[in-house]
Design brief:
Helix content: 25-40%
Strand order of the largest sheet: 1-3-2-4-5-6
Largest sheet: 6 strands, mixed
Radius of gyration: 19 Å
Number of helices: 8
Length: 369
């Protein structure tokens, strides 16, 4: 099955600009394309035997080692008995190519500071963190999936697949692992789940899959990976977690309609068109809502190379509603909040729930063991 039908729901990935300000109407204009895909030479494919082609490795000092100031749970990668293979979202807005060159040091640094430190690092208490650099598709690619954008995503996924296979062949050694991705990275994780489902040991070792920032439709999940249920409880394993954050007052009508159209196109039915939503404050499908008082810690501050600031408890609450996570917007200007059109909080789907995700990932790994 082509991956192109799943990406249009991740259109916010095409707006992956700096996170240090809310996006205005002018800033949210659709990003430009690099030109004709066929006329541009592809960047050289990465060799995953080289440490430089990984944004995070457990034996290397990198952004995934960062821990919020004063955190109860520190970086425990040295003794972790599970791994996480994390695929980062779109951070490349260059116009020189449809796919990022891994020699692009500015984009690599932005990737490290904006998402490896503020997303991948959430797993360093439970797991050794493996995060490949890859020839990610450019920011406009998700808007052109029927053409050159789809070709760019295919190049990106080929890298992710090779990186994951390299991890399995050289580092996994039969250990349990988490697959985690956000936005473009989540799309690639969806494809890994379909492609590797029948590989020896894959299902048995998969602790959980975090597919964050793109809709995973209930009918799509049942059709593509029937062996993979939703993580219904905080200790569930061999399962999938997903959420898509929006503001409390967002109108969900258009998103729900797109999900129905997508599933109709894929399977000829709209039965099961609701997107999976597991509240990252409860991790319990019986408890779809939690007030701000129950949030153990939101990560403030802006992406940078500096140490992570201390998280703050009780900042915001969230509730699953019709497949979307209605979320409070934190007061003040010292959060990396980005308000996208339609009320999407796409860029904040990890940092708003940082301590809750961190503690639950450790609990889930311990439950698996």
């Amino acid at each position: 099955m082509s991956i192109r039908y799943f990406c249009m729901a991740a259109v916010a990935a095409a707006l992956a600009g700096p996170w240090n300000v809310s996006i205005s109407a002018d800033q949210s204009a659709m990003p430009r394309t690099p030109g004709d895909f066929a006329s541009l030479q592809r960047p050289a494919p990465p060799d995953y035997a080289l440490e430089s082609n990984w944004a995070a490795l457990p034996a290397v000092v990198d952004a995934a080692d960062r821990v919020p100031e004063g955190a109860h749970l520190g970086d425990r990668q040295a003794q972790a008995r599970a791994d996480v293979f994390y695929v980062h979202p779109t951070t490349y807005r260059g116009l020189d190519n449809w796919n990022q060159s891994l020699d692009d040091t500015a984009t690599n640094k932005w990737t490290d500071d904006s998402v490896v430190a503020r997303q991948a690092a959430v797993f360093n208490a439970c797991c050794k963190v493996y995060a490949p650099r890859y020839r990610q598709a450019q920011a406009a690619a998700s808007m052109h999936f029927d053409g050159d954008g789809g070709k760019a995503y295919a190049v990106a996924y080929a890298d992710v697949r090779r990186a994951f296979q390299y991890y399995l062949d050289h580092w996994n050694s039969g250990r349990p692992f988490i697959l985690a991705g956000h936005s473009q990275g989540a799309l690639h994780v969806q494809t890994l789940l379909r492609e590797f489902a029948d590989k020896p040991g894959f299902r048995a070792r998969l602790v959980a899959a975090y597919v964050i920032g793109i809709p995973t439709l209930e009918g799509q999940l049942a059709r593509d990976t029937p062996w993979l249920p939703v993580c219904a409880r905080p200790t569930s394993t061999h399962c999938l977690l997903a959420w898509n954050a929006v503001t409390r007052d967002s109108d969900l009508t258009a998103g729900i309609a797109r999900n129905r159209q997508r599933l109709q196109h894929l399977s000829g039915t709209t039965q099961g068109a609701t997107s999976v939503c597991v509240n990252p404050l409860t991790f319990d499908t019986r408890k779809p809502a939690l007030a701000a008082a129950g949030n153990p810690g939101t990560l403030p501050g802006q992406p940078s190379s500096a140490p992570l600031p201390a998280t703050r408890a009780g900042v915001l609450g969230a509730a699953c509603d019709q497949g979307y996570l209605r979320t409070d917007v934190p007061a003040g200007d010292d959060y990396a909040t980005v308000l996208l059109p339609g009320g999407s909080l796409h860029f904040n789907e990890f940092d708003f729930f940082f301590d809750s995700i961190r503690a639950n990932a450790l609990r889930r790994v311990e439950s698996f063991r």
